[in-house]
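Long-time lurker. I teach an intro course on protein structure, and each term I like to show students one example going from raw sequence to a predicted 3D structure in token notation. This year I'd like something fresh instead of my usual example. Would anyone be willing to generate the tokens for the chain below so I can use it in lecture? Attribution to the forum is fine with me.
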Amino acid sequence: MRKSTVLTAAALPLVVAGALLMVTGCQSEKDALSSNKAELSVSGAYMPQPAMDDMAAAYFTVENDGGKADTLTKVTSPLSSDITLHTTEGSQMKHAPQLQVPAKGKLALARGGTHLMLGKLGHKPQVGEKVKFTLHFADSAPITVEVPVQSTSYRPAG
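-- Reply from a regular --
Happy to contribute to a lecture. Here you go:
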């Protein structure tokens, strides 16, 4: 004869509470692991077609969905051996040795603000071309992006 287990009305809340603790505990572990590191992605990248043969700028957004901040330390590209990070304060452009990517935040490079400056271009990029950039961070693995060259007057929507 087979025995069946019957939950009493008094035991049911304990079983439900235990199940919730197991699910919550798993979720907390997952949250704790993701909060220990940066989770970076790049979007909105573009380069206006340079007006000069030897200098250009580039823009993009680095988003961090992780719980730990990271730092953009340098950017490299086959197009230029001279890429620098810059901020703009008022009307003055200033070299920045590194740029912070906050936890659960973003680093936005845009016209009139933080941006990349490229000097000593290997060639003058044309509209429609894609330029490869590798973003290097203090803690995270490098991210390589192909950046489309847009018209000189291009302004992204949004």
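Some talking points for your students: The CA atoms of residues 70 and 101 lie 5 Å apart. Strands lie at 40-48, 55-64, 70-76, 80-89, 92-96, 99-101, 105-108, 115-121, 130-137, 143-150.
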